[in-house]
């Protein structure tokens, strides 16, 4: 099962989350629903180099995927999903330029 860390208010997360509705191969973990989920994500983000580039450019690093073998990726295509097209819908960056 692939763990998928998301947040309800993230447009990128919303886009990919719709693609896995009802798919038992994905466990959706919303980091905004409970502090326990947020702590689990922050532990991962603080210790895994997959987040280095995201942190460098000020991104949160969601959606994030943890594969069954423990591999962490921020690339939706790595798990067979299509990422949200650039310029499609709302943005979540403070400057309004994207997510």
Specify the number of helices. Answer: 3
Instruction: Work out the strand percent.
Output: 15-25%
Q: Structural class given helices, strands, pairing?
A: alpha+beta
Please give the alpha-carbon distance between the first and last residues: 26 Å
Radius of gyration: 13 Å
CATH architecture: 3-Layer(aba) Sandwich
- Give the helix level as a range of percent: 25-40%
Number of strands: 4
Catalogue the unreliable spans.
none
> What is the N-to-C order of secondary-structure elements (H for helix, E for strand)?
EHEHHEE
Shape: globular
- Classify the fold: give the CATH topology: Glutaredoxin
The top level CATH class name: Alpha Beta
Structurally, how many domains make up the residues?
1
Average pLDDT confidence is 90
Largest sheet: 4 strands, mixed
Widest sheet: strand ordering: 2-1-3-4
What's the helix and strand layout?
Layout: E1 2-6, H1 11-19, E2 26-30, H2 35-47, H3 52-56, E3 64-66, E4 72-73
Parallel strand pairs: 1-2
Antiparallel strand pairs: 1-3, 3-4
Describe the structure.
- There is one protein chain.
- With 99 residues, the protein is α+β, with helices and mostly antiparallel strands.
- The protein has a single domain, classed as Glutaredoxin (3-Layer(aba) Sandwich), CATH 3.40.30.
- The protein is built from 3 helices and 4 strands; from the N terminus they run βαβααββ.
- Strands 2-1-3-4 form a 4-stranded mixed beta sheet, sandwiched between helices.
- The protein is globular.
